[in-house]
Amino acid sequence: MKTIYTTLIISIFLTGCATKNIQIDSDNDGVYDYIDICKNTPSLAEVDKYGCALDSDNDGVINLYDKCKKTPLLDKVNANGCSKK
Would you say the C-alpha torsion 30, 34, 35, 36 has a positive or negative sign? Predict the structure, then answer.
């Protein structure tokens, strides 16, 4: 009987610790670390449900830094997300 109580107490303690760790968001992007695929998202970046910064036009420059938000697909872009022509 003593073993059952000891096991129960340890289980409750460990469950409490696990819950605290699950609710950590190290990069403050609004996505908890246990789901977050992109661990170091820049501050103020919009993110998807996995914590990755959005790149709406898929040019390789996240929206936060993208000065040309509607770059045509397959265009080569500079660091600002604008077409190199």
Answer: positive
The DSSP call for residue 66 is: -
- Rounded to two decimals, the pTM is 0.69
Condensed to tens digits (0 to 9), the pLDDT of residues 37-63 reads 999 999 999 999 999 999 999 999 999
CA dist., res. 50 & res. 81, Å (int) = 23
CB atoms within 10 A of CB 15: 9
Residue in 30, 61, 58, 34 with CA at minimum distance from that of residue 43: 30
Classify the phi-psi angles of 24: left when phi > 0, otherwise alpha if psi is within -120 to 50, otherwise beta.
Answer: beta
